Amino acid sequence: MSAFYREKVLSVQHWTDTLFSFRATRDSGFRFQNGQFAMIGLEVDGRPLLRAYSMASANHEEELEFFSIKVQDGPLTSKLQKIREGDTILVGRKATGTLITDNLIPGKRLMLLSTGTGLAPFASLIKDPEVYDRYDQILLVHGCRQVSELAYGEELVAKLRDDELFGPLLSEKLSYYPTVTREPFRNRGRITDLITSNQLFSDLHQGPLDIETDRIMMCGSPAMLEELKQLFETRGFKEGSGNTPGHFVIEKAFVER
Fold first, then answer.
1. Which residue among 21, 35, 128, 161 sits deepest, i.e. has the most Cβ atoms within 10 Å of its Cβ?
2. What range(s) does the FAD-binding FR-type domain occupy (predicted)?
């Protein structure tokens, strides 16, 4: 167990029957870059039961926050969804992940494309002042099936808009675009289709996809990631990594269980 911090749950919020978030204490020794993930979980029968979770809190915050789905028969989430204030969670000491700005070639517009709980690393990144220094525009897209599943992201952005520090930055640079696929809503459709048809950019009164200026981060369902990767690669975009920065990066450690 020495590979983990033992952190205390401070609060839990259930957003829908399938989504919840929670905050926990943060050891002063735990360091991470905004957009990264760590292995977190519970001690079950004396052994750690873990999954990869992106930090939804920024690295300058004193507490940790995570955004999770509930899977009724999931080995971890079936138990994790029942945590309460005062419970103990395990947090791996090492953070990692590809969704960091150094893995991208410099650009002017940063597109953060997410589905479901794939929003979590971007919740961290849009609270990073350095991201606003690096880019002229930041476009946060969150795709869900139903309107109720957008609640976490909508509250996150609303709070930041009211924040003394981030409010002016958001009003100048951040565009938030929630979209759903299975219910009536002001924005409808899958992210791939919205980009291909230019509907996304038209709705936001922004220019179309441009390899010279656009840089992209993606986190979400495996199907969505594969579709978007193919879309961007056919247009000449190159995937970046810690060794070689590129036009886009993908987080593949997505929690689905």
1. 35
2. 2-102
**CATH 3.40.50.80 placement within the chain:** 99-250
130 burial level (CB within 10 Å; 0-12, 13-18, 19+): exposed
Residues in the chain: 257
Q: Report d(CA 70, CA 129) in Å as an integer.
A: 32
Q: CB–CB of 5/27 below 8 Å? A: yes
Is the pTM value of this prediction over 0.90?
A: yes
pLDDT at 255 over 50: no
Q: Tell me the CA distances in angstroms from 100 to 39, 54, 119, 244, one per residue in order.
A: 17, 12, 14, 13
Beta strands in 107-212 (DSSP E): 109-115, 137-144, 174-180
Task: Please give the Cα distance from 23 to 195 (Å, whole number).
Answer: 34
At the topology level, CATH places domain 99-250 in: Rossmann fold (3.40.50)
Cβ–Cβ under 8 Å, residues 106 and 214: no
pLDDT at position 257 over 60: no
**C-alpha to C-alpha distances, 8 to 26, 42, 232, nearest whole angstrom:** 8, 11, 41
- Cα distance between residue 88 and residue 192, in whole Å: 39
Average pLDDT over residues 182-198: 97
